[in-house]
Amino acid sequence: MTKFKLGTREIGVDKPTYIIAEIGANHNGEIQIAKKSIDAAKECGVDAVKFQTYTAKELIADLDRLVTMGPKGNQVTERIEDMFNKVTLKREAHSEVFNYAREVGLEVFSTPFSLDGVNFLNNLDVNCFKIAASDIDYLDLLKEIAKTNKPVMLSLGKCTIGEADMAITTLEENGCEKLVIMHCVSQYPSRIEDMNLKVITSLKNLYPEHIIGFSDHSMGNTAALGAVALGARVIEKHFTIDKKLSGPDHWFSMDPFEMKSLVTEVRNLETAMGSSRKKILRCEESGRYNSIRSLVINKDLKCGDKIREEDLIALRPGYGIKPYDKEKIIGMKVQRDIKKLTVLTWDVFK
After folding, report:
1. Fewer Cβ close by (within 10 Å): the C or N end of the chain?
2. What is the pLDDT of residue 72?
């Protein structure tokens, strides 16, 4: 389905880009930070905010594994279970946070990481599900999500096209009709040279029956704007109210100033894309009248004289006979006296 409604907004190939602020884990497990993030995202002009729904034990077996995060020179190392426990949005907090997002006028949904998470979110009446690139081969999860008959956004990071196709087919065969296939590079942050935005064109050709989007983990606006120009109709970017907050994702996420800039630039780009039909624009008409060339007589002519090629030059302004019509008028007689440097118009032959 290349067009469907998500909340109050339509997503489709002929609709404005749907922009998602991925709050994810950037609330640090605190309801008030989550709400401040929602307020900031609303002010930026995004269409939706997205969270993640998990516990450490739903995700990992090696709870004692050490992970290092943060920018170079300011990295932190800790147990992975401790890290996840700090940034988990508790189940009991979801309802308050989600209702707050709806109250301020934003669509809100989440990425579940377990079958229980799917059912939990479905009971909260979310209008959409996001599937993380890490779960592209977790077919039981995909089937459970598809059976809700709600729109799905599927990230295709760190997978082969065969694995992507298996996931897409699994969703389709289990009832998912409203699908956004999200190009994604699963590196945080992603290098601009790894973006491979041409994959978006490939996905459009491979899956013309679905909407294509882009889950962007690079820094800056370049990749997202390129994706929109190539036809991505959904853009997702990590979002934080403060890059200096502790946590794995804040430092490479967009802050409110950057997100607002992205939204503005996407809307400007959509306006600039305009129509695929080539025509003379109204804003070009005066320039066409004054600045393109016409055929001009380079000497005085008398009534009855025939036009010779050597009598003609091509000069501005552009309201006269076009230079490409030169052969048509050679040998024709002028019907009145004409002074040198007169712009030729068809009425001089009448």
Report:
1. C
2. 83
- If we measure between CA atoms, which residue out of 247, 266, 257 comes closest to residue 17? 266
Q: Are 208 and 186 in contact (CB under 8 A)?
A: no
User: What are 126's two structure tokens?
Assistant: 């979310």
Query: Please, what CATH class does the domain formed by 282-349 belong to?
Result: alpha beta
Instruction: Give the whole-angstrom CA distance, residue 187 versus residue 184.
Output: 9
Q: Is 102 left (phi over 0), alpha (psi -120 to 50) or beta?
A: alpha
DSSP state of 135: G
Helix or strand or coil: residue 24? strand
* Residue spans in the chain of domains classed CATH 3.20.20.70: 7-273
Other CB atoms closer than 10 Å to residue 268's CB: what's the count? Answer: 11
Query: In sequence order, which residues have a C-beta less than 8 Å from that of residue 203 and are 6 or more positions away?
Result: 156, 181, 183, 212
Cis peptide before 112 (omega within 30 of 0): no
Which residues contact residue 192 at a Cβ distance below 8 angstroms, ignoring those fewer than 6 apart? Answer: 218, 220, 222, 223
How far apart are alpha carbons 62 and 129 in whole angstroms? 27
Q: Which residue has the tokens 């907050």?
A: 245
Q: Is-above-0.85 flag for pTM?
A: yes
For CA atoms 11, 90, 149, 181, the dihedral sign is positive
pLDDT tens, 64-112? 999 888 888 888 899 989 888 889 999 999 999 999 999 999 999 999 9
pLDDT tens for 279-333 read 999 999 999 999 999 999 999 999 999 999 999 999 999 999 999 999 999 999 9
Amino acid at 94: H
Q: Are 60 and 67 in contact (CB under 8 A)?
A: no
Q: Other C-beta atoms within 10 Å of 8: how many?
A: 9
E strand map for the chain:
3-6, 9-12, 18-24, 48-53, 66-69, 76-79, 107-112, 129-131, 152-155, 179-184, 211-216, 234-238, 294-297, 312-315
**Where do the CATH 3.90.1210.10 domains begin and end in the chain?**
282-349
β-bridge partners, 239: 254
- Residue range 7-273 forms a domain whose CATH class is alpha beta
158 phi, psi to nearest 5 deg? 45, 45
